[in-house]
Amino acid sequence: MTRILITAFEPYDRWPENSSWLALTDLARWYDGDAEITTRRYPVDLTQMSENLRKDLQANFDFAIHLGQAPGSTLIKLEAVGLNVRSDGSSLIADAPEAYRSSLPLDCCQRALIAAGIPNEISHHAGTYLCNAALYLSQHYSQSYGLITRSVFLHIPLSPGQATIDKGKPASMSTPMASAAVAMVLEQLRTNSP
Fold first, then answer.
1. Sign of CA dihedral 90, 93, 94, 95
2. Binning pLDDT at 50, 70 and 90, where does residue 193 land?
3. Is residue 109 among the annotated active site residues?
4. Set 66, 109, 131, 140: catalytic member
5. Which of the residues 66, 79, 109, 140 is marked catalytic?
6. CATH topology of domain 3-192
7. Is 155 a catalytic residue?
8. How far is CA 92 from the centre of its chain?
9. Does the active-site annotation cover 125?
10. By CB distance 3.0 to 4.6 Å, which of 21, 36, 40, 94 could disulfide with 8?
11. The one catalytic residue among 66, 109, 140, 155
12. What is the band of 169 on the pLDDT scale with cuts at 50, 70, 90?
């Protein structure tokens, strides 16, 4: 059985909820596929997130799917590259590779989402905040510790409830659509990864 770690983040800043966690908890309620899923909610703190991620990856999952909230986004972003950079411009890990590119079939994931009518794109820059750090560190720890785990990061738009209470009325995506997107990516990884 395929073993998958799926992570999301806790609320932060002005957001009382995090769309990544909303999508993950929704998925956990209805998913009944053939994968064994382990879920985690990480703090919005680089040191704590990094430590929790490193410990979780020691279970040597087949895949790690990391989710993060993307205010202002209108679509699911399949992040292809994690950079060794913090928001202040310094390195996440000294003397480590500058970047890791996901080896997973993001093109297959994208086609499945398009076929299901879920707006998405493959993105080559996950920013310089915790989302990028989760993708980079997941790949770095897997390589450093000789793990089989391969990683991907999905940026999730705000939920409609979040957008409704925000004064700027940003773009949103329903939580059921976001959780369906995560499940489709999960299935594509299971069936199309070498």
1. negative
2. confident
3. no
4. 131
5. 79
6. Aminopeptidase (3.40.630)
7. yes
8. 18
9. no
10. 21
11. 155
12. confident
